[in-house]
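=== Structure Prediction Worksheet ===
Name of assembly: unnamed complex
Input type: mixed (protein and possibly other molecules)
Chain count: two
Listed entries:
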Amino acid sequence: MTDEKTTTKATYQIPIGPIHPALKEPVMFEFEISGEQIVDVDVQLGHIHRAIEWTGMRRNAIQIIYLAERICGICSFVHPMSFCRAVESACDIDVPERAHYLRVVHAELERICSHLLWAGVAAHEIGFDTVLFLTWEMREKALDLTEYLTGNRVTKAILTIGGVRRDVTADQLPKIKETLQYFKNNFEKLRHIFLDDKTFKMRSQGVGILTKEDALKLCTVGPTARASGIKKDTRVDQPYAAYGDLDMTYMTPDLLTGEVNGDVYDRIIARLLEVKQSIELIETALDQAPAGELVSEPKIPKLLAHIKKTAGEGVGRDEAPRGEVFHYVKFDGEHENPYTWKVRASTYNNILAWIPMLKGEQIADIPIVAASTDPCMSCTNRVIVIEKNNNKNYMLTKEQLHKLSVQKTRRLMR
Amino acid sequence: MSKEIEHLDAKGLVKYFKDEFKTKVTKAEIKTKKEGKKQSEIVNIWMKIDKSIFKPFIKHLCDYQYPHLAVVSGNDFPKVIELVYHFSLDYGKDRKEISLNVAVDLPKSKPEIETICDYIPGALITEREKQEMLGVKVIGIPDNRRLFLPEDFPEDVYPWRKDDKGMEKFIRNLHDEVKK
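=== Predicted Assembly ===
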């Protein structure tokens, strides 16, 4: 890297992005670079804003469940769940106890899927593709189980207002137990790779630090906040569904290492601990689930009529794999469609946290730091390098940026 | 960050604000919901405050405890735009979290509100979104650019408005817009 221009200490601007289609908030970064160091970061959003809220305000509550499911391909359970809980709270609709437990089972299964997917992406970003295949093989089992329970791998269509649509029957339990046992057997292997491997440590420890104070001020949520030592988990803070009956605590990295650094390594720990927690939660929830009804009002026209004549507002806060998902709905008492529907996905609150995380890091660290907040996937689609002095533009592909990251890993391994 | 005052429950919290702002807190309602076998409580406080005490209110809130701002949502009514600030307090204490939803009305003739980024820097994203989606002017916002809408989106159309500044007319004439 002995470029003539870098020695004159001119700063460069590097836009990265813009989109990964799975995100509701696609992201484009604009970096100001001095040599290899990141001086400043700007984040731009909105490249594929799909106006989901606007569309939703023109549909009735039942239709919105399926629209909310399509906000995100990974959180396709927790978004409709937040929406349903917001409607339930606005219109005073009860949920049977069994449905609360089944909601926990599906939400935790989704968390396992999501965290394993993330672990694979993180490994890929630093050039460990064998680990990518290992984790995604495990994730495949989680997806198989999702399909077994709901009939679909991604859009599960399992929720409805006032309950769930399908039961987990007794003859399904052996297959669930078998899959959970498989996760338990492989968990130690995963932990060993991610937390003990020397190269993993070199790439993740002390990189992309987010201090507790910044995390608080920037309103971060989920594993990103917990890895910085903030005890914030909606499942414990404000136990919804059956979480209040289950024994659980905040998964902060100090549980394992005794200290909080707020770096990429800590974010890996927080997520790995949560995978283990989720396995246990599914087991206990299935054990303790009482028999009974699945939904409080199975007749949809009757349910819609009730919603239509109720004026009220409500919020649904749920812990998605990436942090708290927030839905606000308001009904005016005259229409089936909500007067207002506001969706706030968890990445929305974690965007600003990228700025302190990335400042001072190297270009080759962008993929792993950006991926460490789990913004659905690393959104480094392609890179354009703009040289400020003579306005010369050249473009780096996503592959080239990825190559830079892999090269850094190889350098460290020597 | 902020000095800790003794822990308050939902009723205490309402009193804490009513003592300070008296009749300027026009509505304060506590809604609880219980879920699960153990009937864990989910506490929501819905407040409505006068626009004149908005900034002192946020300061008073930060004096009690540094809150987490989930998001700001907005309702477009015929005469006013209502912004709802969704805070959460007492997280990190097992089962003690309180959701505080603070609504404030802005007149349509002058939909302006002060920024709260000086107290809570994380509010920037959601304030920028409210500016472009509802046509609210946030005074003193550190970053005035658009967030989600593209640069070539017309200036005086606000997608979440239900009046003549909303999307209906824009969509009806979309073929003309494309021709341009």
